[in-house]
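ingest -> validate -> predict -> emit
validate: passed (alphabet ok, no gaps, 97 aa)
predict: started
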Amino acid sequence: MSTVCGQAGTLESCDALVMVLLDTGTPGVSVALDGPSVSAFEEAMRNAVAETLSALKIVDASVTVSERGALDCTLRARVETAARRALAAREGIGERR
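emit:
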């Protein structure tokens, strides 16, 4: 199975650009964080990503977050949307035929 990707968000102020990769061949969830708020809120951000993926029953993924001061609710929404898009890509939903 090849790696599938879902992306959500922007690099605008108060937002986050999130990319979720599934089927990477690496077990577990890895999270890479970048942005001005990471130094102060890294643990909360990692927890938000982990909890959101857990709610979607995703146990193996690679997540990249480039944030620009996003609130917790915004980060969670971006992670959920990116993850759902990756799941849809895996299932072939939305493919052009």
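Helices lie at 38-55, 72-91.
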